[in-house]
């Protein structure tokens, strides 16, 4: 029983950290997007801003899909009585 409880605590800790890290990375990408979408930055180096923006949008999309998948997993576990 103690091993099951310990496994549950590790799972809870890991999923909680994963969700937090994904949210933190998403905020970082959002900050990067704000920076490269600034009019002054676009005027000074438009090609670089466009390239960085394109990469940031793709990264944000990947982070968002993983965050949604993680939230779905947490929801599925909750249906089986495992609260995260």
In a nutshell, what does this entry contain?
The protein has 84 residues and is mainly α. The protein contains three helices and no strands. Helices cover 89% and strands 0% of the residues.
Describe the protein in words:
The protein is mostly helical. Helices cover 89% and strands 0% of the residues. The chain contains 3 helices and no strands. It has helices at residues 2-36, 39-44, 46-79. Helix 1 runs antiparallel to helix 3. The radius of gyration is 18 Å and the shape is rod-shaped. The mean pLDDT is 88.
- Class computed from helices, strands and strand pairing: mainly alpha
Order of helices and strands: HHH
Q: Find the count of extended strands (DSSP E, 2+ residues).
A: 0
Strand share of the residues? under 5%
Average pLDDT, rounded to a whole number, is: 88
How many whole angstroms does the radius of gyration measure?
Answer: 18 Å
Low-confidence stretches: none
Helical residue percent?
A: over 70%
Main sheet record? none
Helix tally equals 3
Straight-line distance between termini? 19 Å
What general outline do the C-alpha atoms trace? Answer: rod-shaped
Give keywords:
84 residues; 0% strand; single chain; mainly alpha
Topology of this structure?
Elements: H1 2-36, H2 39-44, H3 46-79
């Amino acid at each position: 029983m103690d091993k099951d409880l310990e496994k549950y605590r590790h799972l809870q800790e890991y999923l909680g950290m994963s969700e937090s890290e994904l949210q933190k990375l998403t905020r970082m990408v959002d900050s990067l997007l704000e920076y490269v979408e600034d009019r002054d930055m676009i005027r000074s180096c438009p090609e670089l801003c466009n390239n960085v923006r394109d990469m940031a949008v793709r990264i944000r999309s990947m982070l968002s899909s993983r965050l949604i998948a993680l939230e779905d997993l947490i929801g599925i576990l909750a249906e089986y009585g495992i609260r995260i």
